[in-house]
Amino acid sequence: VLVDVTAEDTTDLLLAALGHGFDLVLANKKPLAGSAASHARLLETARVGGRRVLYEATVGAGLPILDTYRKLVEAGDRVSRIAGCVSGTLGFVLSALQQGRAFSEAVREAVASGYAEPDPREDLSGRDAGRKGLILARPLGYLGPPPQAQDLVPRPLRRVPMARFMRALPSLDAAWKERMARAAAAGNVLRYVVTATPAWVRAGIVEVPASSPIGALSGTRNLISFTSRRYRDEPLVISGPGAGAEVTAAGILNDLQQLSAS
Amino acid sequence: VLVDVTAEDTTDLLLAALGHGFDLVLANKKPLAGSAASHARLLETARVGGRRVLYEATVGAGLPILDTYRKLVEAGDRVSRIAGCVSGTLGFVLSALQQGRAFSEAVREAVASGYAEPDPREDLSGRDAGRKGLILARPLGYLGPPPQAQDLVPRPLRRVPMARFMRALPSLDAAWKERMARAAAAGNVLRYVVTATPAWVRAGIVEVPASSPIGALSGTRNLISFTSRRYRDEPLVISGPGAGAEVTAAGILNDLQQLSAS
After folding, report:
1. Active site includes A132?
2. What is the pLDDT of residues A15-34, one digit of tens each?
3. Which residue is catalytic, options A29, A30, A71, A132?
4. Bridging pattern class, strands B79-85 and B188-196
5. ipTM surpasses 0.95
């Protein structure tokens, strides 16, 4: 088994490993969230070689998201929508803002705590959440391109070196403070929500009531809801911390055990 | 495989089936929720014969409760507490009361909809919820007797024939209405909560804020939270409809597939 815990596009390496008879376990989202053609090639190479590709840790870390999806489908259910908050970093930052903290401070703490991807713009750009949305949408039958996630990094800061980006963070504090105050005045909070369906994927900021299940999330907590033929009026919901080294490692370990058991 | 979808104590039959080389899949809680000795005998008979006993559908119907517990443990986590609302019937009845419906009417509808056990007193007595608590506690290492669940059926109605019990239901309406109104005046609602730990099991009515995750439940919706070494500050939570023929059948089917895959 090749376990990929990088944050790079390792598609070529993974294709080579499949060719040499490796099964794959991924915490790395990038090879699963490239173009539809690249994704199809990876899965087709695995299928032809009789190899398996598991990636529970890519969404919700150790939470049983993809495993639950698999169980629903195996029992003959049809999932029409998977939606929720899948970014521990964006959840952490948005709920810190809600508590009156500065945006810059919240982002720095997310990096220091290891919640954020190596470059926090992977999270703030919505790219990381968008990749998770794509990873959830593809099993549903979505064949389109990666989604245009809403980017929380202003255009001038998107391509500067990371150190410069981190120094520029305080310049964003005032706008976030105002935006959060406007939402709070209406009893609402801001959440970064991903929605995956067979036909489309969306990722962006949504204003929700503070008392709603998603509005009540705090910290890095993820919440993922499955709407299906059997869970149609009332979704099946899984929530819990969705980031951190230990729970991510647990997700990887569960995949390894699933491979070794079958 | 012997699939037990009865609501009887089938322990002797199950022991015989194990002796004949059957694996077991249970939606029936009773054989798993008897005395500690009876439970130990069932599991020991299975172990010695190399047979497996799966029972996902006993708690939360099709929700991945026991599967999630197994995954946590397999990845080296230690679960210290499983708690929540596991009775679709009691959830349905208590949230109907909250909406101003009469207790008698709510119980009748739970029976008519097939949410309740064949005799609704199995649910109202807390026995059914207590069994689920016991089923969740035993894997944690709980070795004690079945819990004394809080019984919502007044003593004089506990042993009368079921038809007479159903006719007597309206006599309970006023007391429930008053109890619910007292809770509502404090911004609270009533929920029947089960808590399982390695040392004890409890099942009874708890008054919780209407805005809490458990207070926000409605209808037959279940909510089960896992507290563990890794999910300590923030539990892993699964919620969704936890009763009904179709989702229960899905839980059974998942167990059958797990047996056939390994």
Report:
1. yes
2. 999 999 999 999 999 999 99
3. A132
4. antiparallel
5. no
